[in-house]
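Provenance

Sequences were taken from public entries as deposited. Structures were produced by running a predictor on each sequence independently, with no templates supplied. The record for Probable nitronate monooxygenase from Candidatus Anaerobutyricum stercoripullorum is shown for reference.
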Amino acid sequence: MERKTFTIGKKEVKVPLLQGGMGVGISLGGLAGAVAKEGAVGIISAAHPGYREPDFYQNPIEANKRAIHSEMKKARAIAPDGIIGFNIMVAMNHYEEYVREIVKAGADIIVSGAGLPADLPAYTKDSGVAIAPIVSTEKSAKVILKYWDRKYKCTADLLVIEGPWAGGHLGFHPDQLSTFTRESYDEEVRKILAVVRKYEEKYGHKIPVVLAGGIRNHDDYVHAMSLGVDGIQVATRFVTTVECDADERYKNAYIRANKEDIEIVKSPVGMPGRAIHNALMDKVASSVRVPAVRCLNCIHTCNPATTPYCITDALIHAAKGELDEALLFCGGMAYEADHIGTVKEVIDSFRFFED
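Predicted structure for Probable nitronate monooxygenase:
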């Protein structure tokens, strides 16, 4: 295959891969730095990176701010010249505050989803930090690019298309997840690309597009590129690596998972998500409410009085390997994992520049 690279700001992405952001504590500085060192784009999750700070439950905002800097510093030490950024959910409270802290930390790019990042350009203006919305449908691409164009007279520096086989929170209505086929979603990708081309022409520069969701091997990469995208986003494959920041028990949950263990769950954020079935999901299915350790007021779509469980607590349990109490987010093909490898092995397995 012809060597295809793209740029983010003034930096060349030598390997056309963006590592997906995984929180809480799954993709921090260790994983992001290792990915960036290999020439791809490493992404730190901004979902409570400070969960290990001693004052996290007393002062979560400041703990997270400190961790944004420390995890960025860790990643930069691993990959001094690499491309390193953050993924941040629009659904988070204090979104603007965290974005501005990410800018101060020296990120190259901010990727934002779990809602449309309508005012992200205002928070990054004149910073030189690239901005990349995550979209899943032609409609969402039209909405965000039109809004940025009209209100901020700018467009995306990169766009992530996240398909229905992705892990974690999904940008679809539950009924869409069952109706999309591989072929019909390919057509959706082409429609999104047509929207992007309109803004490329208006602003006179390339907007790289990467495709995410169930991409696990060379054939998937070749197929993605045949649709006209510029690269791929991969997350699940990096969980079962030595460099992943999660506990080994979390990694091994992927290796033990069977296809039938992976299901669509209702997240307290108000969006469907994909996860590995476990004891927590049994409790939720039985209408057993799991009280929060302490409400951190972290997601503006969550009602502490009625939520079946605290998503922050559940994701922290996951990162710590406390599997029965965890929300084990994963991609649609997580059951294919069969060993703990390295970041380099994962990237090499895609054979990016081979036929």
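The chain is about 35% helix and 15% strand.
The longest strand covers residues 83-89.
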